[in-house]
Amino acid sequence: MSTQTGPALDTPSRGHAFVAGPKGLPLLGNLPQFGKNPLAFFELLRGRGDMVRWRFGRNRCVFISDPDCIGELLTETERTFDQPALGVAFRAVLGNGLIVARGRDWRRKRSLVQPSVRPKQVKSYAATMASSAVELADAWSDGQRVDIKREMAALTQKIAVRTIFGVDTPADSEAIGRAMDVAQLEIGKEFAGIGALLPDWVPTPGRARIRKAAAVIDSEVGRVVARHRDGETERPDLLSRLLTAVDESGERLSDEEIRDETVTLYIGGHETTSSTLVWAWYLLSRNPRVRAALAEELERVLGDREPGFEDYAQLTYAQAVVKETLRLYPTIWLITGVAKEGARLGGLPIEEGTRVWSSQWSTHRDARWFPEPEEFRPERWDPEDGDEIAEYAWFPFGGGPRVCLGTRFAMVESVLILAVLARRFELDVEPGVIEPVPSLTLQPDRDVLATVRAR
Q1: Would you say 259 and 222 are in contact if contact means Cβ atoms under 8 Å apart?
Q2: CA dist 40 to 35, 191, 359, 417, 437, Å?
Q3: For residues 45 and 66, what is the distance between their CA atoms, to the nearest angstrom?
Q4: CA distance 74 to 81
Q5: Nearest of 28, 70, 20, 72 to residue 45 by alpha carbon
Q6: What one-character-per-residue DSSP string does 185-217 give?
Q7: Strand residue runs (E) in 38-116
Q8: What is the pLDDT of residues 190-205, one digit of tens each?
């Protein structure tokens, strides 16, 4: 199966038609249902049809579930769909970085940031990823009880600090990490609550907390940027590449733009990978067959040595474990766009100003695209014998012109960390169901405690 990525057709594809969503309340629309449990609400909408009308407050919305329509939304962003205005909490943390920017400003910033995360550059960061994971493995011992959520956050934070900032000072990572924890929590609260409808000027305790956290992030990033400007001119880290990048007119990123793009890269290189790894260990612990298959590949490919970038292509089952984890627990669980004049989806016109939503969580668990969708089955990603998966039925990194620039970085980092740690240990996660909490990324609802077992 494939996704239509060219101009929208004049007639509905796959028999698409708008259907009504659940009835909302005056002024609030469906916000109370959405805020109570966004993931369950999206699954409810998916059950109504592939193009469902609903309201976010007074805003007209359409929720789409068909990969053809999702592909059109993603590939038409910047042409017939625009980035939506984001909340106070989101803007306080990300500023006007690549995720938020629009039009010419977005194109300029993308051209400046993209060279820093090309495959050649990711290869240069791989050694840091693997060596940082080895340091953690050396600190673990058989029978030790660990909080995987905390351990993976500390590990990916260390990698992010080393690869982005080129420093290894605990104060840097700890201060930024604490502020990002607050930011993630407050973004989730504002997005799913009444704060999403409040004007920017309305003060709330949550907005006060997010601004305080953003001030810490600004201060820490500012200190590191100043250190880079005053130090060596040739450094291999991401920040140094951003500082020396120039656009077509010979202009460099301003200090404010450097701050915004640095935070964006930090979130992509730390928050998303950390969450993916926590869910991977959770799933592996509950699926002994998959854990054994992963161990077999690691022994066959690596033997007694640690992995490097050159092993990534050979670790196909480890890649499949990460992909299947991202299917079941996509760290980015929502995409949105605002229709411009002339926008269409599935051959149907979308009224200008309508906000179009789609959810990786909902689509990834649709039995039409993934047989036995609740099953953790990495074999579905086998390049030779796997399932035929519709384009844009799986989109954990988005797609189209605004696809996440850190996709390669995140995949290589996740696979190498998994390979280092799973080659030496098994992690037995304590019994009990762990529920996902949608905030800035999809996080576990509690600590994920496990016992380390030496292999």
Answers
A1: yes
A2: 10, 16, 11, 31, 11
A3: 12
A4: 9
A5: 20
A6: HHHHHHHHSGGGTS-TT---HHHHHHHHHHHHH
A7: 51-56, 59-64, 81-82
A8: 766 666 667 777 788 8
Strand order in the sheet with 81-82: 19-20, 51-56, 59-64, 355-358, 335-339, 81-82
DSSP-derived secondary structure letter, 269? I
Contact indicator for 157, 133 with CB cutoff of 8 Å? no
> In whole angstroms, how far apart are CA 392 and each of 66, 178, 318, 383, 454?
9, 35, 22, 17, 39
pTM of the model: 0.90
- Sign (positive or negative) of CA dihedral 104, 105, 110, 116: positive
Is the model's pLDDT at 61 over the cut of 60? yes
* pLDDT bucket at 95, cuts 50 / 70 / 90: confident
Does residue 50 contact residue 327 with C-beta atoms inside 8 Å?
A: no
User: What is the C-alpha to C-alpha distance for residues 336 and 61, in angstroms, rounded to an integer?
Assistant: 10
pLDDT over 80 (residue 328): yes
The residue among 435, 437, 21 whose CA lies nearest residue 191 is 437
Q: Where are the alpha helices (DSSP H) in 305-406?
A: 316-328, 360-364
Q: What is the DSSP letter of 164?
A: I
3-state SS assignment for residue 116: helix
Token pair in block for residue 201: 């000027």
Question: Contact at 8 Å (CB) between 180 and 161?
Answer: no
Query: Residue with structure tokens 């106070």?
Result: 88
From residue 270, alpha-carbon distances to 153, 161, 363 in Å are 7, 9, 25
Q: Which residue has the tokens 């693997």?
A: 130
d(CA 66, CA 434): 28
